[in-house]
């Protein structure tokens, strides 16, 4: 019997396995595809909620801890694996913000360096933005990470740890519980026994708990994104060097000059098919911010599934009434953002350590499957 069995090889599952292994646990991680190829790969990599002042304290407290952890986490992964997650701390420009007073109240309360800026500063930082921008907000400390590279680095680190067994291409068919305690999982290759199981299945977490006749209120919300190839610019600059956010959509620059545009919010169940309608909508949003992208090739257009829990507050902890079964899911748009904090909180609970963050707001809850109706709503 393994010390801990983890279901799901996204950023949450891999960071959990890494921390447990370094604490001396024997860990088996099961991933139905290849680690890091679902929502963790599909996101943008901004290391903050998009408009952080609009989030509840449970999300904000995790975000503050994680933002502090990311620079050293990325540096350590580069040193130990040779894979650079490309953490960039070049700030974020907010355009057309209609709740600036709330933003500044939040910044003053937390000591964040948020400032109102005019056209001169905006165009000095990003000269190829669309004309006519006369004001915005500037947060110089905000960072971003290249999430596919982060996933590659985490996978490489786990493969080098003797206490970790990766089983990719291994789908979990159902969870097994005996006498009110988890006993393992069933897979197409047979039963895997485990005294402690951690469910990190993202948007699929509710489906897996459904194999016990229980419903965890986590559902998929589809998001589509695109990536542009951009040419070198005068003076050795990139076409875009900082994250820019306007009207709920964002542009994210990569270190090699690529520019990512995201994202849509769609209630489409588990359908991940990219659509022409979303492609055009994303393209128009990108051009409205950075017109020169009209002459740049679209390298890739894709979709992923965010795991949405009520109010965007993830479930983190042991499931009431099922000893040894833990969950870390429901981060909605902030899985990558919150990962270092939410995994630390769960590992603290697993190992009986005093948590650095109050675990109460994240206590998992579920209902008998037949009692839960389809929410049928779009999260704004």
Question: What this model shows, in words?
Answer:
With 380 residues, this protein is of the alpha/beta class. Helices cover 29% and strands 24% of the residues. It has helices at residues 11-22, 39-42, 57-81, 100-110, 119-125, 147-160, 205-210, 276-289, 335-351; strands spanning 4-7, 27-31, 92-95, 115-118, 135-139, 164-168, 174-178, 181-187, 190-193, 197-199, 214-215, 219-228, 243-246, 249-253, 259-262, 298-308, 315-318, 325-329, 367-368. The longest helix is centred in the N-terminal third of the chain and has 25 residues, at 57-81. It is globular. Mean pLDDT is 95; it is low at 371-380. This is Glycine oxidase ThiO. InterPro entries: FAD-dep_OxRdtase, FAD/NAD-bd_sf, Gly_oxidase_ThiO.
Number of strands: 19
* Number of H/I helices: 9
How many angstroms does the end-to-end distance come to? 44 Å
Low-confidence stretches: 371-380
- SSE string, helices as H and strands as E: EHEHHEHEHEHEEEEEHEEEEEHEEEHE
Structural class call reads: alpha/beta
Provide the gyration radius in Å.
21 Å
- What portion of residues belong to β-strands? 15-25%
Query: Biggest sheet: strands side by side, in what order?
Result: 4-5-3-13-14-15-12-16
**Global mean pLDDT:** 95
Percent of residues in helices comes to 25-40%
Principal-axes geometry comes out as: globular
Layout of secondary structure:
Blueprint: E1 4-7, H1 11-22, E2 27-31, H2 39-42, H3 57-81, E3 92-95, H4 100-110, E4 115-118, H5 119-125, E5 135-139, H6 147-160, E6 164-168, E7 174-178, E8 181-187, E9 190-193, E10 197-199, H7 205-210, E11 214-215, E12 219-228, E13 243-246, E14 249-253, E15 259-262, H8 276-289, E16 298-308, E17 315-318, E18 325-329, H9 335-351, E19 367-368
Parallel strand pairs: 1-2, 1-10, 2-6, 3-13, 10-18
Antiparallel strand pairs: 3-5, 4-5, 7-8, 8-9, 11-19, 12-15, 12-16, 13-14, 14-15, 17-18
Helix pairs in contact: 1-6, 1-9, 3-6, 3-9
GO molecular function: glycine oxidase activity
Pathway: Cofactor biosynthesis; thiamine diphosphate biosynthesis
Protein name: Glycine oxidase ThiO
């Amino acid at each position: 019997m393994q010390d801990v069995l983890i279901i799901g090889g996204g950023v949450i599952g891999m960071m959990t396995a890494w921390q447990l292994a370094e604490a001396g646990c024997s860990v088996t991680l099961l991933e139905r595809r290849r680690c890091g190829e679902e929502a963790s790969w599909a996101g943008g990599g901004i290391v903050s909620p998009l408009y952080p002042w609009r989030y509840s304290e449970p999300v904000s407290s995790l975000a503050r801890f994680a933002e502090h952890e990311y620079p050293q986490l990325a540096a350590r992964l580069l040193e130990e694996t040779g894979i650079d997650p490309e953490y960039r701390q070049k700030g974020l420009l907010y355009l057309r913000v209609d709740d600036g007073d709330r933003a500044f109240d939040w910044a003053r309360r937390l000591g964040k360096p948020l400032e109102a800026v005019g056209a001169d500063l905006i165009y000095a930082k990003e000269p190829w933005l669309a004309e006519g921008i006369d004001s915005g907000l500037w947060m110089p400390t905000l960072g971003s990470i290249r999430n596919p590279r982060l996933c590659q680095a985490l996978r490489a680190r786990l493969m080098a740890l003797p206490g970790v067994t990766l089983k990719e291409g291994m789908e979990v068919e159902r969870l097994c519980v005996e006498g009110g305690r988890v006993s393992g999982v069933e897979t197409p290759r047979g039963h895997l026994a485990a005294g402690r199981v951690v469910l990190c299945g993202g948007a699929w977490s509710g489906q897996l708990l459904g194999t016990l006749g229980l419903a965890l209120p986590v559902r998929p919300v589809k998001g589509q994104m695109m990536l542009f190839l951009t040419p070198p610019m005068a003076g050795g600059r990139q076409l875009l060097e900082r994250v820019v956010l306007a009207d709920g959509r964002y542009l994210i620059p990569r270190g090699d000059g690529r520019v990512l545009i995201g994202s849509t919010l769609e209630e489409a169940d588990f359908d991940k098919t990219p659509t022409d309608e979303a492609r055009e909508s994303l393209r128009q949003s990108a051009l409205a911010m950075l017109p020169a992208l009209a002459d740049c090739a679209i390298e890739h257009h894709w979709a992923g599934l965010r795991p949405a829990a009520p109010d965007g507050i993830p479930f983190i902890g042991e499931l009431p009434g099922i000893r040894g079964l833990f969950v870390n899911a429901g981060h909605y748009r902030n899985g990558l953002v919150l990962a270092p904090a939410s995994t630390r909180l769960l590992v603290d609970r697993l190992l009986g350590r005093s948590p650095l963050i109050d675990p109460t707001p994240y206590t998992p809850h579920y209902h008998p499957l037949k009692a839960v109706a389809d929410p049928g709503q779009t999260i704004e």
